UniProtKB/TrEMBL annotation:
Residues 14-243 form the ABC transporter domain. This is Branched-chain amino acid transport system ATP-binding protein. Keywords: Amino-acid transport, ATP-binding, Cell membrane, Membrane, Nucleotide-binding, Transport. Gene3D superfamilies: P-loop containing nucleotide triphosphate hydrolases. It holds the Pfam family ABC_tran. Belongs to the ABC transporter superfamily. The lineage of its organism: Bacteria, Pseudomonadati, Pseudomonadota, Betaproteobacteria, Burkholderiales. It comes from Hydrogenophaga palleronii. GO terms for molecular function: ATP binding.
Length: 243
């Protein structure tokens, strides 16, 4: 399969429409809708328990939506299996940085390689972003620090040729330099036409990279606006983000 160049378009590559999602009997998402275009960064913000992670889990098919629809490109992925959704080019950086602990960094990256209709990043490009990564290749992942593990978790996604990356609190517990590298990665993804959904408690960092913002509360999107508007308007930040 040949790798196609990035497509820059305003047509959403991800379209979530009116999803209701449950854990058992308990409803957590109530008609949640959002969209993101190729080369666009959407920050999904809101308090603890608002349903941000569950939204990502629904997109990934880990906690499928009971009602509503989710489309990735031309495909309806609402009820697709997670491995099929990943194979289409949906990458996920989970908040617990799920790498294989007993495997080396090199092996973790090797097995993450896959072909999609999007571009797979080269190992050298991951080294450019995370300069420490090159020196960690022989280490087993269980012996890495949180920041080092995050570099591996993100590089795995890049090498898996993503067209959309879902980041769940990527800067949690990281030193400022690694947070900068993570935000730098998001900017590079954007410049390549990859779509990003960024769930983040670090609102200041999220607003520096985001194009648009959706605020969630109680399983609903309660406010959506351009990130520039949110950055410039302290009253909007107070009202919707409590800062
Ligand atoms: N496995 C689960 N079983 C039952 N309820 C769950 C489960 N996971 C999450 N919930 C509940 O779903 C709601 C939404 O949780 P979710 O993790 O999506 O929120 P969030 O916005 O990502 O919050 P946080 O910022 O704290 O991670 C919460 O009330 C949470 O307690």
């Amino acid at each position: 399969m040949t790798t196609l160049p990035p497509v820059h378009t305003t047509e959403p590559i991800l379209r979530v429409e009116g999803i209701d999602t449950f854990y058992g009997e308990s409803q957590v998402l109530f008609g949640t809708s959002l969209h993101v275009a190729a080369g666009e960064v959407l920050a999904l913000l809101g308090p603890n328990g608002a349903g941000k992670t569950t939204t990502l889990r629904s997109i990934l098919g880990l906690t499928p939506a009971a009602r509503g629809s989710i489309r990735f490109g031309s495909q309806d992925i609402t009820h697709q299996a997670t491995h099929r959704i990943a194979a289409m080019g949906v990458g996920w950086v989970p908040d617990d940085r799920r790498v294989f602990p007993t495997l080396t960094v090199a092996r973790n990256l090797e097995i993450a390689r896959k072909r999609t209709r999007f571009r797979a990043w080269k190992l050298g490009e991951c080294f450019e972003i995370f300069s420490a990564l090159e020196y960690l290749m022989a280490r087993e992942c269980e012996n890495l620090s949180g920041g080092e593990m995050q570099m591996v978790a993100i590089s795995r996604v890049l090498m898996g040729a993503p067209g959309l990356v879902l980041f769940d609190e990527p800067s949690q517990g990281l030193a400022p330099k690694v947070v900068q590298d993570v935000m730098g990665t998001i900017r590079r993804l954007k410049s390549e036409g990859v779509a990003v959904v960024l769930v983040e408690q670090n609102v200041a960092s999220a607003l520096t990279v985001a194009d648009r913002v959706c605020v969630m509360q109680g399983g609903r999107i309660v406010h959506a606006c351009d990130a520039a508007q949110m950055r410039q308007d302290a009253s909007l930040q107070r009202r919707w983000l409590g800062i």
